[in-house]
Amino acid sequence: MILSLIVLIPLIFAALTLLTKTKEQARGMALVATVAVLILTLYMYFNFDSTIATNQFEEMYQWVPSLGITYHLGVDGIAMPLILLNAIVLPFLILYTWNDDRKAPNKFYALILATEGAAIGVFAALDFFLFYIFWELTLIPLFFMVSIWGGPNKHHASIKFFIYTHVASLVMLLGIFGLYFAAWDATGVPNLDIPYLLSQFQFIESGLMKDLIFLALLFGFIVKLPVVPFHSWQPDAYTEAPTAGSVLFVMLKIGGYGIFKIMLPLLPFTASPDLMITILAALGAVSIIYGAFVALSQRDLKRMIVYSSVSHMGYVTLGAAGLVSLSVSGAMFQQFSHGLIMSVMFMASGVINAATGTRIINDLGGLAQKMPKLAVIMVLTFMASLGLPGLTGFVAEVSVLSGTFVNLPVYVMIALLAIVITAAYHLWALQRAMFGVFNEKLGTIVDINSYQTLSMGLIAMLILYFGLNPSPVLDMMLTNSENIISLMAAMGV
Amino acid sequence: MSEIIDMGNIIYSYIPVAIILVVALLMPPLTMFLVKALSPRSKSAAKYQTYEAGSVPTGDARIQFNVEYYLYAIAFVLFDIEVLFLYPWATIFKGHGITQLATVEMLVFIFVVLFGYVYLLKKEALKWMK
Amino acid sequence: MIPVELYIGLAVIIFTIGLYGFMTQRSGIRMLMSVELMLNSANLNLVAFSSYNADLTGQVFALYSIALAACEAAIGFAILMAIFRMKDTINLDSFNVLRW
Amino acid sequence: MMDLMLLAPELTLAVTGLAVLLIGLFLPVGSKKILGFIASIGVLAALALTVTSLGTEAMMFNDTLSIDALSQFFKIVFLVVALLFTIASIKYMEGNKNAEEFFSLGLFATIGMMFVASANDLMVLFVAFELASLATYALAGFEKTNQKSLEASMKYFMIGSLSAALLLFGISFIYGMTGTTNIPAIAENAAGLVTNPIGIVAVILLIAGFGFKIALVPFHMWAPDTYQGSPSVVSSLLAAGSKKMGIVAAFKVFIVALIALQVEWQTVFAILAVVTMTYGNVVAVTQTSVKRMLAYSSLAQAGYISMAFVVLTPLALSGGILYALSHGFMKAGAFIATAAVVYMVLSENKDTEDPDHLDNFRGLGRRMPITALSMTIFVFALAGIPLTAGFTSKFVLFSSTIQAGFVWLAVIAILNSALSLYYYAKIVKYMYFLPTDADKVSEPLPYTIALVIAVIGVLAIGFWPEPFSYWAMEAAKVLIPGGI
Amino acid sequence: MELPEILFNPLVRGILGLCLMGAIFLGAMAAVWFERKLSADIQQRYGPMRVGPHGVFQLVADAIKLFTKEDIIPKNADRLLFVAAPILLMGSVFLMLVAIPFGAVVINGDTYPIAATEMDISILYIEAMSSISIVGIFMVAYSANNKYSLLGAFRNFARMIGYEVPLGICVVSVAIMAGSLNIVQIAEAQSPLWFVVLQPLGFIVFVIALLADMGRLPFDQNESEEELIAGWITEYTGMRFGLGFFAEYIHLILGSMLIVLLFLGGWNLPEFLTSNLILGIILPTAFFLGKVVLVMLGIIALRWAVPRFRIDQVVDLSWKRLLPLSLLNLGWVIALGLLGV
């Protein structure tokens, strides 16, 4: 029941928020909803047994029996941290936007809540039909978010985003169909349950069929993630989106979730697991390198952050391909950490844009003098992003790289190259934008307000906390990745 | 209709029709040939002019139909076709063990035809020269 | 007895003439007449088959299709009349507002 | 003795239609509004009667009519569309002195469609087919002084009568080769058809005949013009009703009667389906007239449904049948929403050149919130976004295509449906994102009611597909009892 | 006694048809003479008196005159249609004639109608053939390219399409009573009771509609000598006019026969009158033809008794009076049928 509540509260409040008239009502409604979700999620988190890898808090009702569709929810150690991430960041996101003036605030907050509900729905769904519905549902609010409140190129960006991810999810749907009918034909019973279908995958006879299903599903996930070369929607969409939209994009870790939850259990049973691993690893390594290099050449602060995000996502695929429990759990933790770091970074770039009217790094300079509070938070997160020890980014990257090195040393070597570049562009951007001589053309600048300080500061605190003590989430990730790895070991992969 | 269609009989009954048809087709031309042989010839331009009460004819006579004609024609075609459905039913109405259902259906049909008729009347579609 | 192939052949010829007329004519009335020709070729087929199959269905069907052809002609005339009233022509090429 | 109660829905409609016609003759123009209410109540009653008779099976009139799950399902589709049509037309026909003709023609067309759905004999099928067609020809040209409407009607009529001629010619061959017009009996006597080349000729003629009605490429050229030019409410009846009639007729003729020639027509339908959906979607992208865009999208949807002919499994057929119902709600709703916009535009400026131009949808989200929201739901449903009817039916249809091994077909269909999202999103963009300085207008109540009904239908199938897919499955079993 | 089989050979029947054609030519000539004399009598003058006793050979003289008149085709005319039209006119009446019995002989109680052919649907056939003449009339008018002609033809159209429907419905009523579409069987079905008694309304409607169909006064708006100068046939001269003229009179005779066959009991006589061989051969035909002549005279007399209708009156009469009346009659017949009469 609690899972349903967590999924439905944001959706229901989204509808209610749509009906509100003023900004005050809308943001209040949104805050109530997100805080309620946070409380429920925390309650669930504290009752979560991180020592077992099975699904917990399960709920199951019949929905369309003739097609084997059920309403099946449940969380395991892969989903729990991501739900937690969403639940934590969203109230702060609301706070962050507390004093903003924008058109149609009711729609704005409604879309934020709808995205939250849909994202949590994807993490909680244990039925492919439900999973796909929530998956597609994440698309619509974000599409509107970009195309209503986005930057100058919003139409282009929103359409590109929509087409890209829609095509990807349709291809994924093909994969789901393949899985569904293979099992239906084999057992004579239609069933769309995720754990059931995952367990049935190994009984498919045709190797080609297995590979096709795997690749179709994989395509859906990596486009959403995204990794090079399917990333080109992301810079446009992230950049054009309003800050809240960018943060929501970051919160939407459904691509990586799909890889851990669905791809990895299937991986050992494909006809050519080695090939799949190579694909994953190559995609990961290329993304890391490519993202870093492109980020280096960006002039726009937000665009730079976006490409650094591409680079970060490379670690997720690379870690998944590493196939040892350390690398896999590291990759999972990278998702969690990335969510925290990127939300602060986007918030910071949003604040800078609002204060100075530009995001071009060269036009900024010496902001630290005028915005000391922002400077502190930004330095912290930039350090986390480039992987400074003691912060979350470090934990994730070290686990991924060291874990993957056992199996895939070549790719890790390639990825290591990027670490230098990553450090370079982070530091360079920080130096040019925050420190140095203040650019007088920017005019009068005031520091971030207390709501923004509160939200960004608290998330930054969490980055520090989880960097020093990752075990509250890392434990359950480890449990699950060990489970996956042991499964593979049994298959001899 | 025990033997469903007796083709032979039907064809026989049309042989006289064919004979008469040939004669009917030939008769007018033959007559006209006879006339050509018997009648005098004299050329005069006025003789070959269209008659228009004695004055010199003006314009083309082949004017377009008044639209009302089409309305009438449509109404006629529809009613005539509806009568068509009555014929087969009429022949078996007596003494062929027709079911009551068929009679009721035909009455319904006639009622619907009547309905269309009332509609036409009321819409003044049957009024000559509005 | 006349072989049924002859009836079919005649029907096909009439049908083809109708189809050709429909394709090439641009006057609404002529197109309508072409369609009637095609319908009647089908009727010929139906009646011929009915007699060769010793089954009355075909004849009844022909009766119905005659009635439907009449209704179709009625609707067609109505539309063409409305067109004529508006444009003073029934040449269908003059109707080309709807293009993309 | 058969039970005339089984014909109660049709009889109700017939009596309503005649009553509307008669009452309308004696009413002054001002009070003709009541006709729309009578018609709507009649359709509602017929709908109720049909729903209560779900599950009955019977043969009537010497096996020429068959009451079964298939016929009842499609009757419900047609009645739903007719209900939306009549309700929306209450506003459209306001102050029109020929309202009684409009409503009765609509009802008669519905009767025709319903008889096609239950026809078990090619004769009945053809006659009913023509009944519906004739009524819709007249409806399409109802605005006698509007050149577009006339042109639409004329093109529709010309092509429609051509398709009738092709159909009849094809049927005559089938009758000649099998000696019967009874649909199941044709299947039993199909030996003559298979061995004779005339069988192929008949199949080609029938595909062309039905293809025109369903508007499959290359038999589609009338459809965009007609849907664009006709009054919008009529377009809803055409796209959502008349087209489904073609589909159910083709189901009966090809899948039941001509199953022996399966090899021949299956390939043709595969090609037609692919070409139709691709062409429809690609051309729709460039349209600026919403009705024309919906027309091309309707082509695409017909292409999707035609996949059922290729796949031919009970699941695929049930997908096609379910799609027909969903499409009935979605497309009728979309056209009615357009009708509301057209009404609004025309009431602001009577001489607007293109009342359904995309520009008139600017800022609709603010001007007509309910209409805009409904339109959004419809176009998203047409694109196949989850939790709408469009998704459910696409889910069943596409998945069954994969199940049967036609992966290539499913991939093409899925890519198409991704492409379609582009132009659907364009409508939403115009409605919500493009600015306008026009004022908010009050939304006409009848349109709103029709829209709300359609929205409920779309969402119901999306959220709770179980009963619908169950009945679609039952209907599919009528077509192929044992599966193929 | 059986009739020899040879009499039923279709070729022999065809020759019989040709004889009937000749007979009807004579009949038409007689009809023209009757018309002239009767109209003269009604107007209290003599009519033709010079050629032969009481002018009986007047028609022969007329024929000779027509044959020797010059055949003129106007230069504006459509020559092909102009020449072809008489074929249609004559063809229409001759083909009608094939199916109409000119009487019957009764031999040993068996009735043998005197007709070129006997078909199951003869009444439908006759109606169909009768309607062809309208096309001929229109061809004449259109090809002549004359305004009077075209006006006449338009009127002809309007009239014909109005009266065909009530005519058809009356025929259906008759067919219901007789249970057949075969005109011979219809005639024989009136053996005890003529249909005019059973459905007087139908008779009246039928006669009026038939008059209009034949273009007899008061329904000769297509000719209207006074205003349209013979209307549709204005441009026809000489024998070409003669052919159209003859076709009209043949149509008149055949129409009268139809009235007798459908409503006035045909050739049916009580059995004792026909039991004798000679009487059986002569009496039924004589009885039939006698009635035909009476009906014809009645129609001719009617010409001088009523004025011509205006075209709109004609059309109104058919659509607003005759059509409902014929439907009423149909209902009456169905009711009678359900009661078992």
Automatic annotation (TrEMBL), chain B:
<dbReference type="InterPro" id="IPR038430">
    <property type="entry name" value="NDAH_ubi_oxred_su3_sf"/>
</dbReference>
<comment type="similarity">
    <text>Belongs to the complex I subunit 3 family.</text>
</comment>
<keyword id="KW-0472">Membrane</keyword>
<feature type="transmembrane region" description="Helical">
    <location>
        <begin position="12"/>
        <end position="35"/>
    </location>
</feature>
<dbReference type="GO" id="GO:0016651">
    <property type="term" value="F:oxidoreductase activity, acting on NAD(P)H"/>
</dbReference>
<keyword id="KW-0813">Transport</keyword>
<dbReference type="GO" id="GO:0008137">
    <property type="term" value="F:NADH dehydrogenase (ubiquinone) activity"/>
</dbReference>
<feature type="transmembrane region" description="Helical">
    <location>
        <begin position="101"/>
        <end position="121"/>
    </location>
</feature>
<keyword id="KW-1133">Transmembrane helix</keyword>
<keyword id="KW-0812">Transmembrane</keyword>
<feature type="transmembrane region" description="Helical">
    <location>
        <begin position="69"/>
        <end position="89"/>
    </location>
</feature>
<dbReference type="Pfam" id="PF00507">
    <property type="entry name" value="Oxidored_q4"/>
</dbReference>
TrEMBL record, chain C:
<feature type="transmembrane region" description="Helical">
    <location>
        <begin position="6"/>
        <end position="23"/>
    </location>
</feature>
<keyword id="KW-0812">Transmembrane</keyword>
<dbReference type="InterPro" id="IPR039428">
    <property type="entry name" value="NUOK/Mnh_C1-like"/>
</dbReference>
<protein>
    <submittedName>
        <fullName>NADH-quinone oxidoreductase subunit NuoK</fullName>
        <ecNumber>1.6.5.11</ecNumber>
    </submittedName>
</protein>
<dbReference type="GO" id="GO:0016651">
    <property type="term" value="F:oxidoreductase activity, acting on NAD(P)H"/>
</dbReference>
<feature type="transmembrane region" description="Helical">
    <location>
        <begin position="60"/>
        <end position="84"/>
    </location>
</feature>
<dbReference type="GO" id="GO:0030964">
    <property type="term" value="C:NADH dehydrogenase complex"/>
</dbReference>
<dbReference type="InterPro" id="IPR053568">
    <property type="entry name" value="F420H2_dehydrogenase_subunit"/>
</dbReference>
<dbReference type="InterPro" id="IPR001133">
    <property type="entry name" value="NADH_UbQ_OxRdtase_chain4L/K"/>
</dbReference>
<keyword id="KW-0472">Membrane</keyword>
<dbReference type="GO" id="GO:0042773">
    <property type="term" value="P:ATP synthesis coupled electron transport"/>
</dbReference>
<dbReference type="Pfam" id="PF00420">
    <property type="entry name" value="Oxidored_q2"/>
</dbReference>
TrEMBL record, chain D:
<feature type="transmembrane region" description="Helical">
    <location>
        <begin position="198"/>
        <end position="223"/>
    </location>
</feature>
<feature type="transmembrane region" description="Helical">
    <location>
        <begin position="34"/>
        <end position="52"/>
    </location>
</feature>
<dbReference type="GO" id="GO:0008137">
    <property type="term" value="F:NADH dehydrogenase (ubiquinone) activity"/>
</dbReference>
<keyword id="KW-1133">Transmembrane helix</keyword>
<dbReference type="GO" id="GO:0016020">
    <property type="term" value="C:membrane"/>
</dbReference>
<keyword id="KW-0472">Membrane</keyword>
<feature type="transmembrane region" description="Helical">
    <location>
        <begin position="125"/>
        <end position="142"/>
    </location>
</feature>
<feature type="transmembrane region" description="Helical">
    <location>
        <begin position="405"/>
        <end position="424"/>
    </location>
</feature>
<dbReference type="InterPro" id="IPR010096">
    <property type="entry name" value="NADH-Q_OxRdtase_suN/2"/>
</dbReference>
<protein>
    <submittedName>
        <fullName>NADH-quinone oxidoreductase subunit N</fullName>
    </submittedName>
</protein>
<dbReference type="Pfam" id="PF00361">
    <property type="entry name" value="Proton_antipo_M"/>
</dbReference>
<dbReference type="GO" id="GO:0042773">
    <property type="term" value="P:ATP synthesis coupled electron transport"/>
</dbReference>
TrEMBL record, chain E:
<keyword id="KW-1003">Cell membrane</keyword>
<dbReference type="GO" id="GO:0043738">
    <property type="term" value="F:reduced coenzyme F420 dehydrogenase activity"/>
</dbReference>
<comment type="subunit">
    <text>The FPO complex is composed of at least 13 different subunits. FpoA, FpoH, FpoJ, FpoK, FpoL, FpoM and FpoN proteins constitute the membrane sector of the complex.</text>
</comment>
<keyword id="KW-0812">Transmembrane</keyword>
<dbReference type="Pfam" id="PF00146">
    <property type="entry name" value="NADHdh"/>
</dbReference>
<feature type="transmembrane region" description="Helical">
    <location>
        <begin position="123"/>
        <end position="144"/>
    </location>
</feature>
<comment type="similarity">
    <text>Belongs to the complex I subunit 1 family.</text>
</comment>
<feature type="transmembrane region" description="Helical">
    <location>
        <begin position="193"/>
        <end position="212"/>
    </location>
</feature>
<feature type="transmembrane region" description="Helical">
    <location>
        <begin position="249"/>
        <end position="269"/>
    </location>
</feature>
<feature type="transmembrane region" description="Helical">
    <location>
        <begin position="12"/>
        <end position="34"/>
    </location>
</feature>
<dbReference type="GO" id="GO:0005886">
    <property type="term" value="C:plasma membrane"/>
</dbReference>
<dbReference type="InterPro" id="IPR053455">
    <property type="entry name" value="F420H2_dehydrogenase_H"/>
</dbReference>
